[in-house]
Amino acid sequence: MEALNEIMDLILSKMLELEYSNSRLEYIHSQGIIHRDLKPKNIFSDGDSHMKITGFGIACKEAYCDALIDDPGIYRWMALEIINHKSYGQKVDVYSFGLMLWESVTGTIPYKEMNPISSSFCCGEQEFEASDPWKLFTCNESFN
């Protein structure tokens, strides 16, 4: 029973961390900004369980992002619209946030065995699931 309580505490703390991060992302988007490089290394805790989003070096105002021709950020967390140089908006950050959520819950990134660009195409085109349900309860070192 004690192990179950520890697991539930871990799940709750991860959910709270992600909720704080989500509210920060909502604020960024309310200002018309697309981060374009959301990944676990750009999410930090201030020690009081308050999450901070960092790494705004390639962020852009939504109205001007399509004019940029670069491939910003890390392919592993990048939405296909950016990789394919198609028009995009705030949804690309939501996609990256979803991958971080997946990583936080399962303890691994989707299609880890593939190179980053291939994994992005698989995440964008296929459904995936946790192969080991017990991995759902493991701590992800990226968020520690």
From TrEMBL:
Organism annotation: Cannabis sativa
GO annotation, cellular component aspect: cytoplasm
PROSITE patterns, sorted: PROTEIN_KINASE_DOM (PS50011)
Designated name of the protein: Protein kinase domain-containing protein
Residues in coiled coil: none
One term of GO molecular function: ATP binding
Position of the signal peptide: none
Domain Protein kinase: 1-144
Organism ancestry: Eukaryota, Viridiplantae, Streptophyta, Embryophyta, Tracheophyta
BP-aspect Gene Ontology terms: signal transduction
